[in-house]
C-alpha cells in the first residue's frame, strides 16, 4: 500500500468515485477499491460516505481560500486595489480550471441544503478568511478606493459572475476555458466595487432667441385655433427690428402682444417681442402664419402683409 496518508488516499479515491458514478450512486465499496485499503481501514478514518464528502469539501475550500489570501496579500494598498480585484477573479477561474473534478464536486455538494458534519470546521475556516479579507479591504475603503460594502456583497460582485462561468464550464455548457473570460469579468468586477463618481447634471438646453421666437409664434397661432394640431401651422414671415448683438445676447424670453386671425381664420397675424432678463422688450417684431391646409393657396400672403 502507498506510504501516503491513508486519509488523503481515501479522499482522492472518493473524488474519483464521485466523478465516475455521481455522489448518490457511489458507494464506500467503490472508494475502498480505488484506495486499495480494507473495509476496516476506511471506516477507521471515516464513519460514512457523507463524512468522506464533508472532509473532501473542507480540503477543497482550504485550498481555494489559501490561494485567494495569498493573491490579496501580494497586492495590498490603494494603488494595488484594482490589480487585486482582477487577480481575485483570475484566481477563482484558474483554481476551477486546475481542479476540475474537485470544483465540480464542491459546486454539487455546496448547496445550502447540505448540512455537513464538518460544518464547524468550514465555518471556522470561513470566519478566518473573512477576517483577513476584511483587514485587506479596510484601508481601501478608508482611502475611498473601493465602496464600503458588506463582505458578502463584495464577494458576490467580484466572483458572482465567475461562479456562473465556472458552473457552465463544469457542466459542459461552455467549452472555452474559464480563464479566457478573466479580463472581461475582472473589468466588470472592478466597475462594480469601485466608487461611482456622480455625473454632473446636464444643464438644460438653452434655446436660441430665433428658436424661442418661432416656438412662441406657432404656439400663439395654435391658440387662435384650438382645433389645430402642433404641425398644422407654418411660419410664412417673421420680421424683427434690427437688433444689436448685445440685444440678442440679452434676450431671455418671448412675449406675444397681439394675435388675430384673418382670411377666414386661415392666416394668423402675430405681434411679439423678445424680452431681456428684466422682462423688458429688447427686440420687437411680427409674424404671419398659415394653416397647413391653406398654405398653397396663401403662399404669397406673407409678401402682401
Amount of helix: 40-55%
Largest sheet: 4 strands, antiparallel
Shape: elongated
CATH hierarchy: architecture of the largest domain: Orthogonal Bundle
Judged by helices, strands and strand pairing, the structural class is alpha+beta
Cross-sheet strand order for the largest sheet: 1-4-3-2
Rg on CA atoms, Å: 38 Å
Residue share in β-strands: 5-15%
At the fold tier of CATH, the topology name of the largest domain is Tetracycline Repressor, domain 2
Q: How many separate helices?
A: 12
Q: How many distinct beta strands?
A: 4
The tally of structural domains comes to 2
Low-confidence stretches: 244-250, 295-305
- What is the assigned CATH homologous superfamily of the largest domain? Tetracycline Repressor, domain 2
Amino- and carboxy-terminal Cα gap: 113 Å
SSE run: HHHHHHHHHHEHEEEH
Q: What value does the average pLDDT take?
A: 83
CATH class categorisation of the largest domain: Mainly Alpha
Quick overview:
The relative contact order is 0.08. The chain is built from twelve helices and four strands.
Please explain how this structure is put together:
The protein is 54% helix and 12% strand. By secondary structure, the protein is an alpha+beta fold. It folds into 2 domains: 47-193, Tetracycline Repressor, domain 2; 209-304, no CATH class. Strands 1-4-3-2 form a 4-stranded antiparallel β-sheet. Strand 2 (253-262) and strand 3 (267-275) form a beta hairpin. Helix 1 (6-21) packs across helix 6. The protein is elongated and about 110 Å long. Residues 244-250 and 295-305 have low confidence and may be disordered.
Amino acid at each position: 500500500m502507498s506510504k501516503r496518508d491513508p486519509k488523503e488516499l481515501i479522499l482522492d479515491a472518493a473524488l474519483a468515485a464521485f466523478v465516475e458514478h455521481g455522489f448518490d450512486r457511489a458507494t464506500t465499496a467503490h472508494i475502498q477499491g480505488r484506495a486499495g485499503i480494507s473495509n476496516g481501514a476506511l471506516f477507521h478514518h471515516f464513519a460514512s460516505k457523507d463524512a468522506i464528502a464533508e472532509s473532501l469539501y473542507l480540503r477543497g475550500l482550504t485550498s481555494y481560500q489559501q490561494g485567494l489570501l495569498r493573491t490579496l496579500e501580494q497586492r495590498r494598498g490603494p494603488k494595488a486595489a484594482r490589480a487585486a480585484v482582477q487577480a481575485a477573479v483570475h484566481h477563482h477561474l484558474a483554481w476551477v480550471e486546475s481542479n476540475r473534478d474537485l470544483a465540480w464536486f464542491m459546486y454539487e455538494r455546496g448547496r445550502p441544503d447540505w448540512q455537513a458534519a464538518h460544518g464547524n470546521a468550514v465555518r471556522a475556516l470561513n470566519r478566518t478568511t473573512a477576517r483577513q479579507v476584511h483587514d485587506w479591504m479596510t484601508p481601501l475603503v478608508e482611502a475611498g478606493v473601493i465602496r464600503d460594502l458588506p463582505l458578502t456583497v463584495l464577494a458576490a460582485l467580484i466572483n458572482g459572475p465567475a461562479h456562473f462561468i465556472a458552473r457552465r464550464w463544469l457542466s459542459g455548457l461552455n467549452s472555452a476555458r474559464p480563464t479566457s473570460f478573466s479580463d472581461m469579468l475582472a473589468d466588470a468586477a472592478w466597475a462594480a466595487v469601485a466608487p461611482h463618481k456622480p455625473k454632473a447634471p446636464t444643464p438644460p438646453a438653452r434655446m436660441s432667441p430665433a428658436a424661442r421666437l418661432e416656438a412662441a409664434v406657432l404656439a400663439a397661432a395654435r391658440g387662435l385655433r384650438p382645433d389645430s394640431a402642433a404641425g398644422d401651422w407654418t411660419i410664412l414671415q417673421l420680421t424683427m427690428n434690427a437688433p444689436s448683438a448685445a440685444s440678442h445676447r440679452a434676450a431671455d424670453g418671448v412675449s406675444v402682444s397681439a394675435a388675430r386671425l384673418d382670411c377666414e381664420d386661415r392666416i394668423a397675424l402675430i405681434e411679439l417681442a423678445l424680452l431681456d432678463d428684466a422682462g423688458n422688450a429688447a427686440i420687437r417684431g411680427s409674424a404671419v402664419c398659415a394653416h397647413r391646409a391653406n398654405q398653397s393657396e396663401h403662399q404669397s400672403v406673407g409678401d402682401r402683409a
